[in-house]
Every structure is written in C-alpha cells, then in structure tokens.
C-alpha cells in the first residue's frame, strides 16, 4: 500500500506518521542487529568431551584424534603454552567453526 502525504512545515500528520514509524521500526531493527551480532560471534568453546559428543566419536579412538587434531580443524589452546603433554586437554573448539569444517571434511 502506498501512502502519499503533502507536507507543510507545521503539518502534524507527517510528524505523527514519522514518530509512529520510528517507534515501530526500532524493535525490528534492534532484533536484526542482535541476530547479526549473535551470528558473527564464535560462540562457546567446546572441550574434548563436548567435541566428542558433537562428532559422535569416543574420546580414546584414533578417529577422534585424527579429526580433532587435523591441521584444518579450527581449535585454540585455552590458557597454556602447548609444551606439556597435558596441554592437549585444554584445547577448545568453536561449535560453529566445527560445523563448517565438517561440511567439507573428507578422509583421504
């Protein structure tokens, strides 16, 4: 539906329409911005147990180790320097990044 309004400087109708439009658009725009920000954030960093559940692989299997520590799998170390053997337990994986990686993952 198209609406045309002839506007004078002292036209209260145009002012009321503008105020009403702004009031109704504000929550819609805010929701759109919040959704865009939420989608852009990496999300929760999963530990080994959570990654294992997401991949539906047991922790101790070679398949889990092969996929979780493959060079292309996006992961980061959480609060360690990576020099100790126990540091692997502190690795974290972002859920959205793992989903994207697994869409294209193939075993050679």
Order of helices and strands: HEHHEEH
Number of strands: 3
Low-confidence stretches: none
End-to-end Cα distance:
58 Å
Summarize the structure.
It contains 4 helices and 3 strands; from the N terminus they run αβααββα. By secondary structure, the chain is mainly alpha-helical.
Explain what the structure shows.
Helices cover 50% and strands 7% of the residues. The chain is rod-shaped and about 75 Å long. Strands 1-3-2 form a 3-stranded antiparallel sheet. The protein is mainly alpha-helical. The protein folds into 2 domains: 10-41; 45-104. It is built from 4 helices and 3 strands. The mean pLDDT is 81.
List keywords for this structure.
mainly alpha, three-stranded antiparallel β-sheet, 3 strands
Topology:
Elements: H1 12-40, E1 45-46, H2 48-55, H3 62-68, E2 76-77, E3 91-94, H4 95-104
Antiparallel strand pairs: 1-3, 2-3
